[in-house]
Amino acid sequence: MGLQQSLREIQDECKLKTDELTAIRQEYDKYKVRAQSILRQNHNHRDLGLEEKHSEELATLKAQSAVLLGQLNEYKEQLKTLKNTNTGLTMKEEANEKKIKELQNEISVLQNKHSQLSAKFDNTVVEHAETVRSLKVHAETLAQCYRQQISEQEARHNKEIIELQSKIEKAPSPVEHNLPPPLMHREEGEGSENTESTYSPNKVHPVPLERLLATEDDQELANLKKQLHEQELKLSHLTALLADTEQDLAKHTQMNEVLKEEIRRQQRSQERERHAENWNTLKMSYSSS
To answer: Could you read off the pLDDT of 248-277 as tens digits, one per residue?
Structure first.
């Protein structure tokens, strides 16, 4: 804008000088016609002093005309130089505007891509978090259910053991029923021949406690413990998966910040280029003035 203003001022000044030169030329032509007319009228009785005066005026007018012609040529050269400079700056400005538009389009594409990726990532994170939360709740519910079943089974098992132990303690010992009556002590030589009678009681093996317990309860308890262990492993896996998801979310958030910073950097670069172009234009305008 400063260069165009300077160009218009020089063009206006050049036009004024041209008009002034035209007026001087017209005045000079009129004066020349009058001088020739006077010379023709006074051809026979010429005034040498007046002729000399007219010659001086003519020389002055010619000198002024030469000065004005020189200034006009100088202004024409300046106008030509400014036009060439203006053409170069216009081409450079058009190239910069084209580059700025390309950068703006690229930024717009990156912003759209960033928005799409952010929306997609947010949806994925929400869906994944919801899935993990549901699985975690399900696993915790199953684990709690299995713990309750195991606790109930152990309580029932302990109760049965106590009842069986109580029945065993209250039941009469089979050893007492199988013992023979005690032998009467007799003197040697009394009655028949002394014969040693050895009593060998029947060996009584008590029923093992393990046989009294229901093997099905043990198997059920083992199965419940196994399922509980599996659910705890699954819960641990889901917890690790949730931690990985949170870590991925942090990485994507960091990438988003980096992309935003890159967009801001490109915008600042465009602003610096625009300010540099304006500054160069002002410098050219001041130097031309």
So the answer is: 777 777 877 787 787 788 778 878 887 777
